[in-house]
Design a protein that fits this description.
about 300 residues, mainly alpha, globular
Length: about 300
Amino acid sequence: MLIALLIPLTLAGIICMGVLTRETIRQGGAPKLEGAILGAVVSFFDTLGIGSFAPTAAWFKFRKLVPDRLIPQTMLVGLTPPSVLQGIIYLLLLGVMVDPILLVGCILACVMGGLLGAPLVAKSKVWVVQSVVAIGLLVAAGAYTLTNLHLMPGGGTANSLPMGLTILAVVASFGFGVLLNFGVGNYAPTLVLLSLMGMDPRLCFPIMAASAGLMGSAASVRHIRMGQMDLRLVMGITLGGFPAVLIAAFIVKEMPVEMLRWLVIVVVLYAAAVMARSAWVGRKGDLTPMTPEAAVAE
């Protein structure tokens, strides 16, 4: 069963990386250094369980590196290859300990949700994307805060769930896959949900990382071919992420990250407030009655 997951995950990562490399060369220019540094930092801490989407979105917004409507796609494509590497590592280290039905079911459901969500985010209005990202940032900030205050569910020692809870976890994973396209990371919600159900938190990592990697690879190819992103920034994030994942997984393994989470909370809340304001302004503009001239132009 483990081989049946490792082979498609590896192949999907190779295909995604190949398409990204080809299109980056076609677009021209070298990978951006700022992207590489950002990718290294967020992928390092992502491997240790903090998550990468929220801090990346916050940095994009703070530095104005990416238009708001392209933040989800840019994050997803840039962070997917390092997530594939994480998925392979965690499947090899911990995957054999997880109930195969739960593992495969959650991963496939997340992939299906991701494929459905890819065209949705591309067709959504800017203020809708901004609103979803803002909500996702607030959820992440809440999860970080609960973790630091030791209020996050500690989880149990189970490596499997009753059939009813397994079905619920699979359905939820489908939703997490859809939201990944909107820049809402799946690490925090997956960890919270499965921990509440009694899962050993360590055993959530193969599910989270493999889901993000496989789903992200499938959705990323579609986003790359749409040709809307700055692939130099995307490639920088990807290249910076690879060595960071290896260092975190095999050298550092674990470290005290509580102070870092408090810093991330401040940055993420700032980005969420700015994003929510932009969404509010954009929505008000959408609801403004059209003038006769504008109606004719439409």
